[in-house]
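During the reporting period the student researcher (J.K.) took over the structure-prediction task from the postdoctoral fellow and processed the backlog of single-chain submissions. One of the processed entries is reproduced below for the supervisory committee.
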Amino acid sequence: MPAMANRRRSKRSSLTRGVIAVTTGGAALALPVIGATGAFAAPAQPAAAEKAAVSAPVSGKTISGKNSETATYSVILGDSLAKIARDHSVSGGWQQLYKDNRKVVGGNPDLIHPGLKLTLGSAANKAAGTENKAADTSASGASDSAVRTESADRADRSERAGNEVVAQGTPVAAVEAAPVAYTNDLDGWIKESLAVMAQHGIPGTYEGIHRNIMRESSGNPLAINNWDINAINGVPSKGLLQVIDPTFQAYHVPGTSMDSYDPVANITAACNYAADRYGSIDNVFGAY
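J.K. obtained the following structure tokens:
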């Protein structure tokens, strides 16, 4: 019995010396939820436990101090991530320590084994940050690539559409700006006049213009009245809507001819006058 008691004391003494050596070397032992247990270092093998404890001073030297940017810690028997994080003041606790060393620890933070090398502090954070940045860069690059691809597709579709129009025999100039052609008759004159009036905000409809033209001149752009009071006063009514020169000049619409016999100029000036006096040529049903 005494001999067995001496052996137990010797074993505890050896293990205690190992712990003291760890403290002297500057390595603080640390731990998480479940420590580095006998599942990985069986208590029935005292030589292995003593060897891990004796090797602790080497791990302590590797750590080199709390202020160092690079710190590596070697797990010993009884350690856990929580203990290591607490003893070495790891920012973010054992969760951050596990995050920084997930590749070496594996999927279960509760299971660490003696001899496992952990990186502490900013060095681990830099490594994790580099991985995250690489992932973000990859995602950003994929997004930019998708945008560029979409833009290229739109440009390609536009080019194909343009080529199809040209292939069908339509001149490019006609596609860009096809001028409206009006017939040189009463229908064409009225339609062209309506287009000019729309540009200048002058009201009037095809029916209202046509009705008044047929009453005033029967559609003859060279019609002239040489017998009424205006003719007696020296300013006979002229053109499709029988406009006297003073009225034509006062209500002439810019962009049209200054000749009162010109069909479009005559219609637009008369409609401009009617809009001023009656609200619209559509409201005129007799001599005006």
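The committee noted the following: The longest strand covers residues 71-74.
J.K. will present the remaining backlog at the next meeting.
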